[in-house]
Amino acid sequence: MTQLYSGGCACGAVRFEIDGAPVDMNHCQCRTCQRGSGTGHGSHLTFVGAAVTTHGAPSHWVATGELGTRKSRAFCPTCGSPVYMTFPDMPDVFVTFPASLDDPSQFAPQYVMWTAAAPAWDRRDTELPAFEKMPPR
Amino acid sequence: MSAPYTGGCACGAVRYRIFDEPMFQPDCQCRDCQRMSGTGHGSYVAFANRANVMIEGEAREWSFTGDSGNMKTRGFCPGCGSPLYLLSAASPQMFTIHAGSLDDPDDYKPQAVMYRTSAQAWDYFDPALPGFDKLPPM
Predict the structure, then answer these.
(1) Model confidence, pTM
(2) How many structural domains are present in chain B?
(3) Total domains present in chain A
(4) Which of A22, A40, B27, B28 has a CA positioned 20 to 30 A from the CA of residue B43?
């Protein structure tokens, strides 16, 4: 059974639809995710090889993660909402954020990573597996 | 004099220094804050007087009507998209920063959680914090 995911930014200028199932859903407490969210963690749904359609013209900011992976963060140039991430070195991968979804209840986090960078005030669900940095592959 | 609150965006284009003590430090679970953060809530440090804020670089601003009906303006970096600050038409002197933009995240000392009626089931926050269905009484 396929599931459809749709979402976009606060002002409606950037939208996306995904036909596929996420292979991974997490919270990440690394410093980059803190700056990107403005709070103590970021949250993500990762799709690999899904059929993705995007609309509008987001701005992109490319940064390189600790392990050398380039991440392109797409956000709306008008309202600033983060909408998705793509990876120049991994074109099949599409990541979005639970609150970017029209239905955020589709997000079901499986684990928390980068707890080593978490601020003390950022709470997490202690029933979720937690990893000090990345989960093992 | 205590050290100013400093911070900025991920790419370094916009930086702030605030020479003041915070007025209020809430998490907020409203849908607008969810969209700004991409996750279940935003975290904020509110200062009473914009005159105590020094900003280098230029944030882009976008105005919207919040869940409360008040007009808000958010500031974010046009280069990297990092959320930076919020202004409120109802309290024009107030200047509020996103806690994740602080150089030292430990500067944030959350006092309350607002708009719990809008919370996503998967969102987590400190259960010891006072919670408000919407805004706290002013």
Answers:
(1) 0.96
(2) 1
(3) 1
(4) A22
